[in-house]
Amino acid sequence: MRMKRWAAILTACMLLCAGAAGGEEKTMFEKEWYQQALKDSVMSTGNNARLKKVIERARGGEDITIATIGGSITEGAGAGTYQECWAARLAVRFGTAFGTDNGKNVHLVNAGVGGTPSPFGYMRYQREIVGRVPKEDKDGLPDVVVIEFSVNDWEEPTGHRCYESMVKEILDAPNEPAVILLFAVFRNGFNLQDQLKPIGKRYDLMMVSIKDGFYGLIGKKLKSEGFFYDEYHPTSLGHRIMTDCLMQAIGDAENAEADAAPETDVKPVYRTDFIGLKTIFGDSTPEGYTVERGGFASVDRNSYRNQPVGWVCGKNFFHDETDSMDPLKVTGVFRKCLVAWKASGDAAFGSAEILVDGRAVMTVKGGTGKWGQSEVVLVLDDSEAAEHTLEIRVKEEGKKFTITAIGLQ
Fold it and tell me: What CATH number is given for 278-408 in this structure?
């Protein structure tokens, strides 16, 4: 009996020890290499004065809004559910860490749309960020804005001027929001962080680089298919890692000594000559401009969508197969003009000629390799404003064409 009792005690001790050892096993997220990668992803915490004020307000119970704008990665592509994408996770994590009542006072406005560059993002900013701030946030403006276009801005037509103009215009908002630049990465290692980080440095912004933090660990500590859903988008795990990187930077900034208020009136890196950009949509025209729809009388409902919002940009300018050949015409005083159009590979879509003051500037056409993404062309880039007439004409009768929006400055 004594031997059996000792055997039972010994077995119990072994089970307890085994359980303790199992409990001490660290998850991937707790391991030293992961924690170091998070630190490596923080390219800069930037000036923390604005962020600290937002956190203080959130802790005090004020309603605050986190806004995210970018391409398909921001929209949530690759994540198993929308709730698992980095933007949705960030709002929950920020609310849990700094909000009240389990973060109910922290709201999210996600304006990510697949296949869109920063000029199109800037054209949409007032409508789809500012225009969607929830009524609980009394000033009607976002408090933290995360910008993610580092994999979407290849060959965008303004040479990063729209990106910098958007950054500057957001920084100049009266509620003094915190701006974070997020640099995602493709499976092949491509992004444009080297071109965009000088903007972050100039304005002393928080910058987070997934490439700097985790890309070098893929194939070593992380399986490629564990991080990447396809060639371009992260898996749910990849989205989780992106959120962890952002929260690492936010935590580092919050724990640091408070900085003096940032200086935002600095010499631009590329130029901020698109500040004040106004956007014409099919259902709204800013004061001072006249629009004649002509043969663009229809609405293309198979255009851009965002997972939590649905159809975005409102009504567009769609030339259907049976519409007249009359041009879409815009008149007013402006010095710069951007045209966002749907680059379709569908044979039913044709080409369109764009004219300024009767002079043909370019022809845009979909085709092979196009999948309905938004492309933006710069059709006027003057230094002085003047009275102009923009015309867009479909070139082939019986063909479709969609103009999503027109940006004028």
Answer: 2.60.120.260
